[in-house]
């Protein structure tokens, strides 16, 4: 008799949105992955090979001379309220992120893509068409710009000298040449050396980042900076001091990577990690009045 | 012709953090009639308080690379030109 109460716990606070997402339980939304130009290689049959978010099929929704790769997702999982909740669930986030990426990669192997941000969800395909029509000029320009280009990620790490990696492991134990100076002084000396070493490595890493930028000049056409990675998911050893992306003509990828590797040779304690090729995620930034519904942030 | 200019590297699992860097702060944001825009969600809340730690108190990059700094010397920002 009262069993239906639980059903209503996810109602969003904004009544206008509630109206729109209230149908969420029964309905499907349109999840947009990327914008492309409708290309021969992307007809219905080709897209049948790829599986999107929520294991759904992917289709092209076209308008204004461009098309969005779209899949249907269950409304109950992608309503505003549900999304807010799910985005805090790392497992869910990873699953959706990898599926999203899978579709973008699939498209990128066949044509130029303008990747969209994770969880770009519209109430239906007609809304997707409206957005495509509204931004057709911008999309076309971005696609022209991205054509034949790939994104390479370059991360610079300041490693800690091996023996300093765990400063507490070797305490002032009273052995070695400093023993006579007393444990206290020896400890302080060690800490100072440790600090100096760390600073040296950091400045070498900063130098590496500078040299990489210089080396990329003339090959890369754009640079985007991400926040240095830290926290549990940051798996690289050492401290990430630069996390940059370069937009590079695909045909010069090898040259780019060689230059980056060579640029940082001989810098002590510095590790460089190159990732890619990526679709141009980091460069798919719309700002200004032209951005459909533009919400540029400072 | 592909947009890649080269064959993709052999399939490998990309690191989640690299993917999230790109999918949460990169990727075009088209608001239109979105169900929810991630740009409107405080990234700190996105699961990752301790994980991505993307947003620090003084984060200059809270919402991805500012275009002005992302576009190099003399390169025009995307939106400088009149609508085509």
From TrEMBL, chain A:
Coiled coil: none annotated. One of its GO terms (cellular component) is gas vesicle. Keywords: Gas vesicle. Residues 1-25, 165-200, 231-250 are annotated as: Disordered. It is found in: Gas vesicle. It holds the Pfam family GvpL_GvpF. The keyword Isomerase does not apply. InterPro entries: GvpL/GvpF (IPR009430). GO terms for biological process: gas vesicle organization. Its main location: other. Belongs to the gas vesicle GvpF/GvpL family. This is Gas vesicle protein.
Automatic annotation (TrEMBL), chain B:
GO terms for cellular component: gas vesicle; vesicle membrane. It holds the Pfam family Gas_vesicle. The keyword Chloroplast does not apply. One of its GO terms (molecular function) is structural molecule activity. It is found in: Gas vesicle. InterPro entries: Gas-vesicle_GvpA-like, GvpA. Keywords: Gas vesicle. Belongs to the gas vesicle GvpA family. This is Gas vesicle protein. It comes from Streptomyces filamentosus (Streptomyces roseosporus). The lineage of its organism: Bacteria, Bacillati, Actinomycetota, Actinomycetes, Kitasatosporales.
């Amino acid at each position: 008799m009262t069993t239906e109460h639980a059903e209503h716990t996810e109602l969003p606070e904004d009544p206008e949105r509630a109206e729109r997402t209230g149908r969420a339980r029964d309905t499907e939304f349109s999840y947009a992955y990327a914008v492309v130009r409708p290309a021969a290689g992307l007809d219905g049959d080709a897209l049948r090979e790829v599986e999107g978010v929520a294991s759904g099929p992917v289709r092209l929704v076209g308008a204004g001379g461009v098309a969005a790769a779209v899949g249907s997702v269950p409304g109950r999982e992608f309503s505003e309220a549900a999304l807010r909740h799910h985005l805090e669930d790392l497992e869910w986030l990873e699953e959706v992120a990898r599926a999203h990426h899978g579709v973008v990669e699939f498209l990128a192997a066949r044509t130029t893509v303008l990747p969209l941000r994770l969880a770009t969800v519209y109430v239906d395909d007609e809304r997707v068409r409206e957005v495509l029509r509204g931004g057709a000029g911008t999309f076309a320009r971005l696609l022209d710009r991205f054509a034949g280009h790939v994104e390479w990620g370059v991360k610079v790490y300041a490693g800690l000298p091996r023996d300093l990696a765990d400063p507490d492991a070797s305490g002032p134990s009273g052995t070695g040449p400093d023993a006579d100076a007393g444990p206290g002084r020896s400890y302080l000396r060690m800490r100072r050396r440790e600090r100096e070493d760390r600073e040296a490595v950091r400045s070498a890493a900063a130098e590496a980042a500078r040299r990489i930028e210089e080396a990329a000049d003339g090959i890369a056409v754009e640079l985007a900076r991400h926040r240095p990675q830290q926290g549990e998911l940051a798996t690289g050893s050492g401290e990430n001091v630069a996390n940059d992306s370069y937009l590079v003509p695909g045909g010069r990828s090898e040259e780019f990577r060689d230059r980056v590797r060579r640029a940082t040779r001989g810098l002590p304690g510095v590790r460089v990690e190159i990732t890619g090729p990526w679709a141009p995620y980091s460069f798919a930034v719309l700002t200004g009045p032209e951005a459909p519904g533009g919400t540029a942030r400072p | 012709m592909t947009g890649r200019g080269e064959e993709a590297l052999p399939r490998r699992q990309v690191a989640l953090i690299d993917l999230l860097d790109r999918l949460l702060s990169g990727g075009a944001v088209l608001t239109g009639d979105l169900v929810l825009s991630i740009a409107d969600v405080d990234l700190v809340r996105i699961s990752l308080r301790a994980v991505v730690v993307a947003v620090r108190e003084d984060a200059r990059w809270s919402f991805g690379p500012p275009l002005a700094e992302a576009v190099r010397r003399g390169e025009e920002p995307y939106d400088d030109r009149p609508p085509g």
